[in-house]
Amino acid sequence: MKPDPKPLISLVVPVYNEATLIERLHDEVAQAIDRVDANWEVIYVDDGSCDESLMKLRDVQARDSRVVVVELSRNWGHQPAISAGLSVAKGDAVVLMDGDLQDPPSVIPDLVEAWLEGARVVVARRSSRKDRGLRGVLFPLFYKVLGFLSDFPIPLNAGIFGLLDRQAADAINRLSETNRYLPGMRAWVGYKTKVVFYDRAERAGGETKQSLWRLVKYALDAIFSFSYKPLRFCLGAGLAVSSFAMIYGVALVVLRLMGMGMFGISIVDGYTSIIVAVLFLGGIQLISVGILGEYIGRIYDEVKRRPLFLIEDIHRSETQSIDNRPPVSALADLLKTHKSESQRDPAHAQS
Ligand code: UDP
Ligand code: MG
Q1: In whole numbers, what is the pLDDT of the chain averaged over residues?
Q2: Which residues is 162 bridged to in the sheet?
Q3: For ligand 1, which residues put their CB under 6 angstroms from it?
Q4: Do residues 163 and 94 touch, judged by C-beta distance below 8 A?
Q5: Of all atoms in ligand 1, which is nearest to the CA of residue 99?
Q6: pLDDT digits (tens, 9 = 90+) for 289-329
Q7: What's the angle, vertex CA 169, arms to CA 192 and CA 117, rounded to 5?
Q8: Which residues have a Cβ under 8 Å from the Cβ of 2 and sit 6 or more positions away?
Q9: Do residues 75 and 46 touch, judged by C-beta distance below 8 A?
């Protein structure tokens, strides 16, 4: 059989209790991917939804043979769900996207275009963000803190939305860490990266599925998995405080020996200085122990080596034949052909 000259692109979308959105989501996805001249598989990962999401996804799959539904054994969370989809994806490139239409599918052709132009990693970066209330305050603060603390540059204001080519996707699949912060891991693996800007929409419907607590944990993962600066901060604070205490101590002893008070207070009455020193040092010690605890807890998670997710079932359409594809090694040439074809034929050109 003649190999199919088009690349295969996988789209991975985590879904948790989004039953009301699924049809609209797939319509928009289908519209967007129809604009890209490639073979597609759309992998919806059902993250243990307790509404009709799985049923709706199976309906969509019955209608569209490009759809694959991955069913997880329970609710594992946003990052594990994406990792599960990424592990199943067979495409020459994998697009990651949220399922609540906050990541607009209409940007997908731009991501693919950036890939065809040679980027191995494409990051979709929000040029605006429409979070309200506490989240509207906490997200910018988080990105400021992360930007300051991170040991290497992680593109800020970027979530999981973006594209990974096969090599980058394999690299991320090989990272077995349990506390996953994908935007950080994507920056960590490196590779030629391109940023595409887009406007982040509001949720198309339903409630956010990430509780504030989960977002806080996600933020802590981002900071503690990609930075040793908090530890260094403890060390620095400890050194600074103990050096000050040493000088202060020597000064007190000298003044005491000379029979003098300090700032007009006789030294025996030094309740204030003692209580201040005790509370201050106690506070610094507790913060330091807490920071150590954050790292140790993560070490404990990692040494357990538990799987990141468990897949209960993978539903594929029987007609889906993605094994007629040419081997990935032949891909570079094919991409060139594909690109020149799409340049020749304006109907194939991506916007
Ligand atoms: N999601 C998931 N598992 C979860 C929580 C969320 O698969 O435990 C999915 C959810 O369906 C959505 C995406 O992850 O498609 C992002 O979640 P959400 O919009 O709730 O997060 P936010 O945008 O508020 O950070
Ligand atoms: Mg969302």
Answers
A1: 80
A2: 96, 123
A3: 14-16, 18, 47, 75, 77-78, 81, 98-100, 102, 208-210
A4: yes
A5: 15
A6: 888 888 888 888 788 788 888 998 899 887 655 544 444 44
A7: 40
A8: none
A9: no
Note the pLDDT tens digit of each residue in 149-195: 777 777 666 788 999 999 999 999 998 888 888 888 898 888 888 88
Tell me phi and psi for residue 37, to 5 degrees: -80, 85
Residues 109-130, mean pLDDT to the nearest whole number: 87
Specify the ligand 1 atom closest to the Cα of 76: 8
Straight-line distance from the first to the last Cα atom of the chain, in angstroms, rounded to the nearest whole number = 32
Residue whose Cα lies nearest atom 25 of ligand 1: it is: 210
This prediction's pTM: 0.69
**Type and span of the H or E element at 169:** helix 166-174
The separation between CA 59 and the C-alpha centre of its own chain, rounded to angstroms, equals: 29
| Closest ligand 1 atom to Cα of 208 | 20
How close is the Cα of 78 to the center of ligand 1, in Å?
5
30 near 109, Cβ under 8 Å? no
- Which tokens hold the place of 88? 């199943």
The pair phi, psi for residue 150, each rounded to 5°, is -60, 140
Separation of CA 277 from chain center: 41
Q: Which of 100, 103, 126, 130 to mutate to test the pocket of ligand 1 (most atoms within 8 A of CB)?
A: 100
Match 């201040």 to its residue by tokens: 276
Q: What is the maximum span of the chain, computed from C-alpha positions, in angstroms? A: 100
Task: Count CB atoms within 10 A of the CB of residue 49.
Answer: 21
Among residues 15, 72, 125, 34, the alpha carbon closest in space to that of 312 is found at 72
| Chain centre distance of CA 88 | 18
